[in-house]
Amino acid sequence: MAENDEVEIIERENVLKDKVGTEGPSESDLRAIQRAQAAISSLSGKYIEIADEDLANLTAAAKKMKTDPANREKHLKQVFLLSHDMKGQGGSFGFPMISLVCNLLCRFIEKIEGDAGEAETETVSLYVNALNVVVRGRIKDADNAQAQALLNGLDLVSQKTLK
Predict the structure, then answer these.
(1) What is the C-alpha to C-alpha distance for residues 105 and 129, in angstroms, rounded to an integer?
(2) What CA–CA distance (Å, rounded) separates 62 from 126?
(3) Distance, CA of 11 to CA of 20 (rounded, Å)
(4) Which one of 17, 90, 121, 144 is separated from 137 by 20 to 30 angstroms, measured CA to CA?
C-alpha cells in the first residue's frame, strides 16, 4: 500500500446482537439445557447397568494387578481410566457416592505415580471392594454417617500406604 492511499473504514451495524441480545441466556440456550437435562434423566435409570459393567471391568483389572505383577503398571492404568470414567458419570447420573470413591481412588493412583507394589495393590483392591459395596448397594447419598465412615476409612488407608 502506498503512502498516498487512503483507507476507508466502514462500520457495519451488528443486527445479530440486536436479535440475540447481550444479557442472560437466550431462549435457545434454555431449550438446549432442558433437552440435555431430559437426556440425562432418561439415561439415569440405565446408568446403574453401565456402572455394573464398568465395575466388573474395574474389578477384573484390580485382580490382574495381583495375579499378573509383571504387567501391574498396565493394569493400574486400566484401573485409573475406568475409575476416572465412573467418577465423572456417577455425579452426572445421581450417584455422588460413586464419584467420591472413584475420586479418592484416582487421587491415590496419581500419588503412587504408577509404582504399585504389594501394599499399593492391596489398597487399590480395598477401593474396588468399597466401590462394589456402593454400586451393588445402590448407595447414592454421601451425607449419611456410614458413607462418611467409608470415605474416611479409605482416606486413612491411603495415607498409611503412602507413608
Answers:
(1) 11
(2) 10
(3) 20
(4) 121
Q: Quick one: cell of 16?
A: 445479530
In the block, cell 439445557 appears at 33
| pTM of the shown model | 0.74
Which CATH number belongs to the domain containing residue 144 in this structure? 1.20.120
* C-alpha distance from residue 55 to each of 100, 112, 142 (Å): 15, 22, 19
pLDDT per residue as tens digits for the range 39-66: 777 766 788 888 999 999 999 999 999 9
102-131 per-position pLDDT tens digit: 999 999 999 998 788 899 999 999 999 999
Query: What's the domain range around 143?
Result: 45-162
Side-chain-facing half-sphere of 32: CA atoms under 13 Å = 5
